[in-house]
Structures are given as structure tokens and as C-alpha cells.
Amino acid sequence: MNAPLPTLPWYRPVGDECAVFQHCYDNRLPLMLKGPTGCGKSRFVEHMAARLGRPLVTVSAHDDTSAVDLLGRYVLVGGETSWQDGPVTRAVRQGAILYIDEVAEARSDVIVVLHSLTDHRRQLFVERHDEELTAPPEFMLVVSFNPGYQRSLKELKPSTRQRFVGLSFGYPEPAVEEEILVGETGAPPAVTRRLVALASKVRNVEHLGLAEMPSTRLLVDAARLIRSGLPARLACRVAIVEPLTDDPEVAQALNDLVALAFD
Length: 263
Ligand SMILES: Nc1ncnc2c1ncn2[C@@H]1O[C@H](COP(=O)(O)OP(=O)(O)OP(=O)(O)O)[C@@H](O)[C@H]1O
Ligand SMILES: [Mg+2]
Known about the structure:
single chain; 263 residues; alpha/beta; Rossmann fold; 2 domains; 9 strands; elongated; binds adenosine-5'-triphosphate; binds magnesium ion
């Protein structure tokens, strides 16, 4: 009997992103995903890695991330020093899909370490281990960042950006977002339709001054809570309003919209 096929992480395509990813993979081109928080970037990469049958190595970059963190270091084990690969080195060795989340948060000297991996050389220089690795054909580098994020003034330098093929993610069309909510949570259409209508309203109100708009992720969380029996308005308050704002007036305005959506 054949072994059952592993189930893919579920992903509802919203455009041509699967074809773009596949072609980048086939042509060994690195890919940059841009978009706000919670719009499906990570899920998309998990899905594509599984579809391609490649391991996925994920790294979340932040301003303390050093080249050593990414490449590897010597560690002391029982009085002996031994080399330990960092995630980037490991991913290159394994021919994995390497996903670097929030790449713009990393310092530029760290980002530069990736440059030789992103051009025709596809090489990684692991100086501390005196190693020069060439990425196997299966290796692919994917990075993400959130260009509109107001607290982050960081931008990727053109010399970095222009090494990547770019895909923009946004909030899906209402019908697609409803499908995502149903697929993720099994909530009834009467609930998912209202949640998506609520999100569209909030996304279109300009004077609220929110740092980020409600993401699909927040709607999924709210749908889950409603499906498990929490009253809809309460679910929206804790899963959507509270994560979005600490300002009591803005929260009140949002809760009013919730009350209208779930009257
Ligand atoms: N197209 C989609 N198909 C299936 N699920 C989706 C899709 N888009 C969003 N989701 C749902 O939204 C959740 C959040 O998505 P994900 O974690 O991929 O966001 P992200 O863009 O990586 O956010 P961040 O920038 O914060 O890392 C997922 O766990 C999933 O439930
Ligand atoms: Mg993510």
C-alpha cells in the first residue's frame, strides 16, 4: 500500500503567487514578499515548501541578529569545541527553502552576508568555519517585510531589493477572505460574511489612526472564538479590537462598528 501523502498546509491562493513562486524556484531566483502583518505570507511559504517537497527553515530577523547567528559558531560541548551551523548555513546545506521574516529589521552588515547567495554565484561564505558553500539547485531564499509599518523606518537598500523578484500581498477580496475564514475555522457563512464586512469597514475608515489595519489573522481568530461558542461581539472585541488599539476612544469607535456588524 502506498504511504498516505503528507497533507499540505492549507493555503487559498489570492492571485498568481503560486505560479510566481514555482517559476522562481525553477529558475533559482530569490523572492521577496511584501505586505502587512497577518495576510498569509508565512502560510504561503509553508504551503509552497511542502508542495515542492523541500524542508523549510525560517528565521525571524531583528536588529540584534548578527551574521554569526545566521551562519554559525563554535560552541563548547563537554570541554570540546564543535562547529554548529546557523540556520542559513543549515538551509544551504540541506537545499531547503530559507524564509527570512522581517528582513528589513536586520542590520545592513547582516543582510550583506546574504548577497552572494542571491546572485548567480549562489554561494555562502562561512568565514569563521573557513568554508565556502555553493547552494544546491533545490535551495531557495525567500524574504519578507512589511513596507507600510509605521514604527519601522527601516527600508531595504536598492542593492538588496534589486536582487529579488517581488510579490506584494494585501488583504484579499471579500469573497476570498470569506473562503479563507471558512477553510481555516469552519465558521458558518453568516459569521464569516459579517467579519469580512466589518474588516472592510475598518480598513476604509481613515480617521482612526490605526498603525495597522485588521488582518486576515485577526478575523481567523475571531471566527474561531465565535465558532467555539463565544458571543460574537465579545469575540470581536478581544480578537480584533484589543489587538488593534490601546486608545479607549478608538476602541469605542471600533466596538461601535462591531455592534453594527453583529446587531
Ligand atoms: N491565503 C490564505 N490561505 C489560508 N490561510 C490564510 C491565508 N491568508 C491568511 N491566512 C490565515 O491568516 C493567518 C495569518 O497568516 P500568516 O501567518 O501567513 O501571515 P503573515 O503575512 O506571515 O504575517 P506576519 O507578517 O505577521 O508574519 C494564517 O494562520 C491563516 O489562518
Ligand atoms: Mg509571517
